From TrEMBL:
PANTHER family: BLL0914 PROTEIN (PTHR38446). It holds the Pfam family DUF1304. The keyword Glycoprotein does not apply. This is DUF1304 domain-containing protein. The keyword Membrane applies. It comes from the Bacteria. Keywords: Membrane, Transmembrane, Transmembrane helix. It comes from Breznakiella homolactica. InterPro entries: DUF1304 (IPR009732).
Amino acid sequence: MNITILTVCAIIGGLHLFIMILEMFAPPEKQGMIFKMPLDFVTQPNAQTALKNQGIYNGALGLAILVSLFIFSGTTRLMVLLLFMGFVFIVGIFGGKTVTKSIYFIQALPALCAGGLIIFALLI
């Protein structure tokens, strides 16, 4: 069970690092296509600043998830991961409602599944 939890959480952490790269370093054409935003919007300097700022947050969250896999152990690790999965779930719900519905499946659903696995592991 723990291997499954750690693997799913590592994938979610890696996904957030990948999202950071897209938000901070991808060309506007790719950002517009991936995030379903008009090109004339994502090429604006203020939109680029906002995307890069959001990228920093996604990167910090992804890095925190990955680091927590190594610096904590046992119940503490599971509780920290549960907290981070809660963050990802909330952000995924908001993103799915405000940006594109695919975020429900890319962020919120995996975090919900990981959180469920963690809760199950804590209860057994």
